[in-house]
Structures are given as structure tokens and as C-alpha cells.
Amino acid sequence: MGIKALRFAGGLIAALVFFPSVRCSAQSNARAIVHIPTKSLTSMPLFFGKDKGFFTRENVDVDLVLMSPPTAIAALVAGELDFSTTVGAGISATMRGLPIKRILYIQQSVTFALMAAPEVKSVRDLVGKSLGAAIAAREIIKGNGVDPSAVNFFYTQSTESSRTALLSKKITAAMLPPPFAEETQVRGFNRLAEAKDYAPLSGIGLLASSDALKKNPNKAVAVIRAVLRTMAYMRVPKNHNELVDYILKIHKIDSFVAAEALATVMAVYSKDGTKPREAVQHEIDIYREALKITKPLTPDELEDMSYQKRAYEFLGR
Question: What is the pTM of this model?
């Protein structure tokens, strides 16, 4: 099974690595192509939900596509993707005038940790050093009384690239999600700070283009229902060991590290797929400052939560 090459700005977008859905369900099932930036635990409600059959239950055949966030945003606008999970990249795209809407919050806060080389003991030690670029990293730097201009930010495009660059010592520090943060910590790297302690930035969620939502609103509702069902299942205490075992099949880490990483992401999962308005506005203001955007933006311009509301009301019947 393939996906046609994505094109923007007159050129080819990088080839995609994806997890194709099994075509054993009814022909009436809708196909949903969903971008995930990495198979870290931040995206677990997507790939676990797929493997557990929650999407099939909603009559959705889901394809999970791995690509960098900038590429995903371009593909979303071009109509080559149905949904993206990178709500951080989406907010900057919306601020640039692209027709993209947030429709679900999977994580209310980011779970990324600032991981640094063993010789780096504090955030202040990063002055003059190279750091994988991220809005959250800048907020951590500022929050520790360091001028961001004193740090050399290096754009890596993806979590996997950041992880590789850190392990190969091409950069001194990087923002990593579970379980990659825990994995590097076991290798002797220092966990300097947690992004959620410095800024109310959103983690993984769902984005869609305005055109796609108008053309097929029921697909959006079905996908959201599947994600919410998955998250509800993951919150049941008796399913904890199953989740840890599932993580161990994907990542080469021990069970203690897997359990710690799972606890980190579970702590920030939204119970109903929403996020408080004041936190969203604070997030908008952080991005506006970082991107030097003067035009005001409100949560209503960033989101369309009507699809979440429909899905949540259906599940509550």
C-alpha cells in the first residue's frame, strides 16, 4: 500500500514511513491518514488504539504516518493528510494564516524533558552550548534567568533527530519525550528540567484543515471517539500491566523505565479532550512572543471544539 508523493513549493516532500491499517474491516469504513511525529509514548493513544481495535469499532481504517512536523503541516494543508497530532507546529501555522484548526487535546501539557550531556549539571551550564531548538526549551532557558541568545539553538526537525544528535554529541542538550528521556537518563544523561513546569504548552492533539472538516465532519467525530475510547481504556488501573507490556514490545527498555515513562504521559492526558481556555490563551501568547507575531489570536480562532463536543456527548449517552 502506498501514499502518493506529497508536493509543496514546487518540490517533493520527503518519503513517508507509515503503519498501514489492515484491510479486514467492512468496505464502508472510512480511511483516516493521521500524522504522528514519532512512536514515542506521547502518541500512544493513536497506535495503541489502532492495535486494540478502537478505530475499527468506530468504522475507521487508520493509517499512522511518520514525518517531521513541518512536512505534516504542509501535507495537511495540501489535503494529503486527514489529521496531524503536532499541535505546536499547528499553532504557528495558524498564526501565519493557514486554515488549520485544533479539534482535540490528547495531552494538556507537554511531557518533554530537557536532557543534557553528563557534564552539564544545570540549565545555566548551557550558556554557549548547542541545544535542540524548541519553544519549550526557550521557556526553560528564560525561566532559569538565562538570555536565550546566550544559547546556540540547533533546529533538528524531529524528536528522533534530536535524540540522535544528543547521543552522538552533536548537540549538548535536547527536549525529549517519554520514553526517550528516560532512556537517555539511564545512559547517564542529566534531566535538567520539565517543560510543563515552565509553560502551559500543549502536547499531542489533533489538527485538521478547515476544508477537510467541512467535507467530512463525521470522520473527525469518529476519529475523536476512537481516541477518547482508547484514553479511557488506558486510565483503567487493571489495564496498567498490559500497557507496560505493550511499551516493552516497541521500545528496548526495562519494565521500570517503561512504567516511569507511562506514568509521565498518563499524568497529562486530558480526560475529555479539552484544555482550559486560560491555558490555551497563555500558550498563544508564548508563541506570539517567540515568533514575533503582533496580531492578536484567541482560542476561538485556533480551535474548533465542536467535533470533540459531539464525540464526547455521544460516548456519554
Answer: 0.85
